[in-house]
Amino acid sequence: MTTSAVLMMIVAMLVVWGGLVASVLFLRARPEVDDTELPDPDAAPPGEQG
User: Between the N and C ends of the chain, which has fewer C-beta atoms within 10 Å?
Assistant: First the structure.
């Protein structure tokens, strides 16, 4: 492989692995909300039990 091919391979690997690391760090800082954690929209607000 030529020097330019090796450099392009390294750049491509850094982009892919850097994106993976960035996405993992982002999800660790801001995890996705689970549907079971959302409040029930049909439930009465607290204090207004009827």
Answer: C
26: which 2 tokens?
A: 């982002």
What's this model's pTM, rounded to 2 decimal places?
Answer: 0.55
pLDDT number for residue 49: 61
HSE toward the beta carbon, residue 18, CA cutoff 13 A: 6
3-state class of 45 per DSSP?
Answer: coil
Instruction: Write out the DSSP string of 7-50.
Output: HHHHHHHHHHHHHHHHHHHHHHHSPPPPGGGSPPTTSPPTT---
> Vertex 34, ends 33 and 35: CA angle to 5°?
115
Residues 29 and 23: their CA atoms lie apart, in Å, by: 10
